[in-house]
Write the structure tokens for this entry.
Amino acid sequence: MYKKLVVPSMLLAAFGIAPKQFLLAVAKKCMPSTSTVISNKAGSESAKRPCVVQKNEKTVGSLKSKSEPTKNGSDIPQFAPGLPRWPTDNRAFFDDKPLADYIQPTQSGRLASGLWGCTRNQGKKFHAGVDIKSLYRDRRYVPQDRIFAALPGKVAYINTNPKNSVYGNYVVLEHFEPNLRFYTLYAHLASVEPTLKVGQSVAQSALLGVMGCTGNVPGLYYAHVHFEVGFSVGTEQTFTRWYNMQQEKPKDPNAHGQWHAFNLVSLDPLEFFRAKSNFTHFLKAQPIAFTLFVATNKIPDFMAQNTALGMLPSEKFYGWRIDFTWFGAVVHFEPLLQPQKEKWQVVSFDKRELEKNGNRHTLEFDKNNRPFLGETLERYLFELFGEAF
Ligand SMILES: [Zn+2]
């Protein structure tokens, strides 16, 4: 036994490999692999080597691992009752612990890569959520962390076909504040709580599933829950029209309705926790990066459902004035009562805010410094209004 332990570590040392690295490499290599993952081009994260958690008898009902503390009301990881809770049992964020205690980085090892924003590929790639690490693993290194509803709401969508999304198995909850609705999303789950049904109301801390590495997570070692908070931009109808326009034949139909990653705009979840407010206040406090006039006679569902952010026309109107954040979230809107000459027009912009736009492609500028609609902004406008700008 002694020899067996000593020889490998000497060998490893000879090759300059730390025993921990070796163990991780073995853990990754031992993962069962699947042949392909069908990318639905939905990703804010690129498709990489997939991981599959074996169908495991240890699912929701039998998850009491020895290391897992029992939680009661006062132990819930949140700043105060009524505010959003952390989607796992990890208290580190609320105890002001270092990022490494709660963030799962990508293979780059950079902790920032697990945060929301233009945090990947030297700031060129946008990550729509926050990647929360596993606290509890079993002997085979399979995460045992349970995933909970951050806020009370309604189950809007469940995907249990992990191969048809970069998000793998995922759950979307919709939350309702006066005249405003928003979502939270929980991705890469190993399994979804089997009793959960679309349309069902859930309380805060309702069990949604178990952490995993389904979708575009490169391996068991990188298991995490990708947590998002934001809006669905278009309806299923407007989004599917946009989606079908992008598809090359043969068509791969949109499997996720309005809850497809490309129809969502997300805000920084950690900032939402830090705001210690409801979502409406948090959103209204976002800096405005640019304001557009768009000429259209449509009233999108987004406007009709979110009048906390603006007003609906009570007379003939010709379009909308819309304030956007640098990443494309609508902060405010109001109808335009004068005819518009142009299909769209930039009313104002804040260059400093837009500089945060690593590769987000919202409002962009050509080499003559003339603004144009970047691809993300074009997409959002199409999803909102069901027409091209
Ligand atoms: Zn993520």
Q: What stands out?
A: Residues 39 and 165 are 6 Å apart (CA to CA). Helices lie at 2-14, 19-29, 236-246, 269-275, 279-284, 301-305, 351-354, 375-385. Residues 45, 127, 129, 131, 226 surround zinc ion (CB under 6 Å). The first strand starts at residue 117 and ends at 120.
